[in-house]
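User: Predict the structure for this protein chain, please.
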Amino acid sequence: LYNYHLAKDNVRINDSIIVVEGFMDVIRLSTIGINNAVALMGTALTKEQIVLLKRLRCPVILCLDNDEAGLNATMSAGDQLFIEGLEVFVIRLDDYKDPDDYIVNKGEESFRLNLEAKVNYLDFKIKYLKTNLSNDSKEIAEGINNLLELINPITDPVYKNILIEKLVTEFNLDKEIIKTKISVPKIIKEPPKEIRSIKKTQVTKACEAIIYLMLNEPKYIKIFDKNMGYFPIPACNSLLNEIRSFYSDHNTINLADFLTYINEDEELSSLVKEIISESNDIVKPEDFDDYLMITKREVFNKRIDKLKIDLERTDDLDKKIAITKKIAELKKEV
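Assistant: Here is the predicted structure, written as structure tokens:
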């Protein structure tokens, strides 16, 4: 998601995130003081992008291009986000292709009026189906059934009833038939997740905090390499190598692109998502030196333990003296 690293800081102020297609739309919005926007860099919404949007815990406003591809993308993204439990709204800009063109031609005030008049996604979808479905009975039934699948899990009885009334009115349906199809919500119980249920050590937390800072600010990669160079935890080291490789290729770190970059490695991808979700409100840049010290101490302690084993195994006096001296030096560092 283009501009995610900056937009997320403005979400708390605006209590929403605006999703557009291209980076020029984000740049244009910033010129009128709207800084809570991100770009898909295309029309498809990926699973990784959904993860990032869910982390923000705020309503999502879809403002995709005003063409057929943009409309189809709005419907697809709206379904995906709604199913994931997000509150979704839609803005459609008439006459112009995208937010960039719209603002250039109609100005800030007009765009902000559209923003204030955003439409709830399910209301938008009902109107969309009414306007765009053909007269084919099967196609109409499929569209209505798809909409019912979205309405079914809603727990607010008042809101659910309002949507049913709209659906019945727009398509001239029998309300009782509709109610029988959604009267019993389907509850899917997921099996309990056992992965990474073990309580994390202070060292693990410190290593993951450093990785989190690297993913948000590349300067920490260089600082870490200068002071340490590797983690005492294998999984973190594997992830560090991928971060270095990505940074070397792109000279920057974009979280969404990085997740796509490592997507085929399920273990590393899961680790990144876990670090992101657990570290967002806890890890602070000003504590980097503390994280580094904890990590360094663990590395030195492991070196000391290995040297102690070497000390016990050797009978050579000179080697014993050298090892003892090295242990003393490392203890000073710790």
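The CA atoms of residues 95 and 146 lie 29 Å apart.
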